[in-house]
Amino acid sequence: MTTMGTPPVLEMRDVSMCFDERPLFEGFNLRLDRDEILGLTGPSGSGKSTVLRIAVDLVSPTTGTVLCHGVPVTEYDPRELRRRMILVPQRASMFSGTVRDNLLWGLRVHGLSATEDELVGALDNVFLGREFLDKVAGNLSGGEMQRVAIARGLLLKPDALLLDEPTSALDHEATLVVEDTIRAVLEERHIGVLIVTHNREQARRFTSRVVELNNNNRKDSEDSSSMGVSQ
Ligand SMILES: Nc1ncnc2c1ncn2[C@@H]1O[C@H](COP(=O)(O)OP(=O)(O)OP(=O)(O)O)[C@@H](O)[C@H]1O
Ligand SMILES: [Mg+2]
Taking the CB of residue 7, how many other CB atoms lie within 10 A of it? Predict the structure, then answer.
């Protein structure tokens, strides 16, 4: 349930989105608090990735309000906003070089650095051993890359992780490992997690609540998000 008083990490109120004057969705509401895993589902092309991009102000909604900790996202310094809410895109990209290079890259973008122990700690958060630091990032498996991408984000000490289908390219076993990883991170860091998934099974076992995005969105968003109904 939602907490009284504390503004949520992310809140979207009555958001609508048009591309080229064609409405994609409207009347969309969402609230993400710390310590919860919120699912975002909907058919392909319904705008799930767009919702995540709106959340971190990479795209402006046509109408509606988007708040991070109660403050409009447009009032944040973009880098600060994208440090507070880490978006891990549908296909997490690794840069050339080692896992260490990749972890440090995320920090460098934000003018930060980390000790070797902190890098090892970030890998430990995603159940990867210190030997991964010197592996070539491009040679990792899909599941390992997703976990490195999450570790790279976690080094920035975010308040929320926005994960765009983080397990869609993974087999069942690797999917469960990534889910365990995210759950462990949530327990340790008390972050909020918003996860886009096509997989109903995953939504059922992994999320505490699901917001559905579809062409008849007004009704769904009221049912499942703004009213805070658990599914
Ligand atoms: N910058 C843009 N300009 C024009 N149209 C766009 C833009 N970004 C996204 N769209 C369109 O908006 C629609 C929704 O895209 P989006 O990627 O958000 O869907 P999705 O729900 O994430 O789909 P999938 O499940 O396939 O990943 C698509 O039809 C897409 O072509
Ligand atoms: Mg998408």
Answer: 14
* Best residue among 20, 50, 58, 88 to mutate for probing ligand 1, ranked by most atoms within 8 Å of CB: 50
Structure tokens at 159: 């308040």
Count of structural domains within the chain: 1
pLDDT digits (tens, 9 = 90+) for 141-170: 988 998 999 999 999 999 999 999 988 888
117-143 per-position pLDDT tens digit = 999 999 988 889 999 999 999 999 988
Measured in degrees and rounded to the nearest 5, phi and psi for residue 197 equal: -145, 145
48 contacts 213 by C-beta, under 8 angstroms: yes
Expressed in angstroms and rounded, the spacing between residue 133 Cα and the centre of ligand 2 is: 30
User: What pTM, to 2 d.p., does this model score?
Assistant: 0.88
Query: What's 222's DSSP letter?
Result: I
Distance 154 CA to ligand 2 centre (A): 22
Q: Is residue 3 part of a domain?
A: no
Torsion of CA 71, 73, 74, 79, to 10 degrees: 120
Q: Is residue 2 part of a domain?
A: no
Mark out the alpha helices in 170-216 (DSSP H runs): 172-189, 200-206
Helix or strand run (H / E) with residue 125: helix 116-125
Give the range of the structural domain holding residue 66, as residue numbers without chain letter. Answer: 10-226
